[in-house]
Amino acid sequence: MENAGAPNGRGGSPDSIQFNRDRAECSLHYRNSPSGPFRRPTTASAMLCEHLVQLERELLASGIAETFRGQAWSSHCREWVYFDCYLDRPAIRARLPLAPCVVDHEHLGTHDGQEAGFVCAECQDAVMGVHNRYAAGRPVFG
Asked: Is residue 65 part of a domain?
């Protein structure tokens, strides 16, 4: 049984050595990838589903830093992209025609991070910014 007991199917619990090694390798790979934080993505790199691509392109064009792109959390996530800003979700919803399958998402963990944004329930893609408790000093996108 591969990765038995692994809640995320990637090598064990967050406290395990294998999990932390995998996490470090993914982080290193991401930092050295063309979409890593040291290489500014372009609008041509937009890769989210049709339900979120307009929002993703606007964020990329705005110059707000992309902090992560890839499969976050679990196998139920396809492409999640994180931006270093606070997403004003009501303002974005008022301005963009988001499909009914795009739902608001908010997570404020005690030890596993924080985020707030939009998830496409149909395609498992997401656009995330920081949680409002961490928004101080960051740009607001709306």
From this structure: yes
Alpha-carbon gap, residue 123 to 134, rounded angstroms: 28
For 87-104, the pLDDT digits (tens) are 999 999 999 999 999 999
- In sequence order, what are the residues at sequence separation of 6 or more whose Cβ sits closer than 8 angstroms to the Cβ of residue 140? 85, 86, 88
Label residues 13-23 b or e (16+ Cβ within 10 Å = b). eeeeeebeebe
Whether residues 18 and 56 fall in one domain: no
pLDDT of residue 75: 63
| 118 in any annotated domain | yes
pLDDT of residue 52: 95
